[in-house]
């Protein structure tokens, strides 16, 4: 997949305010500060596209970016940011879950995990909820530059194996660094494959 053009479209406060067309979309979620916006910028080769911040918890809206005028990348607010009030976080969680359950164009959700961390309850609960809700997703490990290559691989494998206590089949996963552009081709190729599969299914249907 070659990204020739990436443009911000809209920040929506609810799923009803998201773009009204049928273009396919891929969304990014994870804890605040895990590196969602940085990853979108890295994939698009466009530093200022999605707003990144050293201060967690800044994105409160569903942000759509249109790629090659054909499909969307979507930057979602982070879940589980302790410094937000319970009421604000509960509203955000509701908005995120409505988007995930209702948005038909969403063909894959990327769940971002900091590769340095062991499996945490909040990520695990979220992923188990995706399973129960039958939402297609994959895992992106972020900030691999903070560890050596072998250690990042080892952590990612251990994290994935941790799912096997309740998951029969593991979702695809990618190890990335926005700083070093690690994993860019792999993620973009995966996006291309998912879109090709869907277009073929459409043609057969
Ligand atoms: N070293 C390193 N830092 C990163 C990477 N990705 C993001 N960061 C930093 O982590 C912080 C949060 O990133 P951001 O993309 O805003 O996270 P978001 O809240 O999930 O959107 C920022 O200070 C980024 O510079 C990475 O791949 N490597
Ligand atoms: Mg962000």
Give the integer mean of the pLDDT values: 93
Total E-strand runs: 7
Bound small molecules, by name, code or SMILES, are: guanosine-5'-diphosphate, magnesium ion
Give the overall shape: globular
- Classify the beta-strand content into a percent band: 15-25%
Counting helices, strands and paired strands, the structural category is: alpha/beta
* Major beta sheet summary: 7 strands, mixed
* Distance separating the two termini: 25 Å
Q: For the largest sheet, list the strands in their spatial order.
A: 1-3-4-2-5-6-7
Number of helices: 5
User: Can you tell me the residue ranges where pLDDT is under 50 for at least 5 consecutive residues?
Assistant: none
What would you report as the Rg, rounded to the nearest angstrom? 16 Å
Give the % helix: 25-40%
Order of helices and strands: EEHEEHEHEHEH
Task: Tell me what the structure shows.
With 205 residues, this protein is α/β, with parallel strands linked by helices. Helices cover 35% and strands 20% of the residues. The chain has helices at residues 36-44, 86-102, 121-132, 149-161, 184-204, and strands at 6-12, 25-30, 62-67, 71-75, 106-114, 137-142, 173-175. The chain has a 7-stranded mixed β-sheet, sandwiched between helices. Bound molecules: guanosine-5'-diphosphate and magnesium ion. Magnesium ion is lined by residues 36-37, 59, 75.
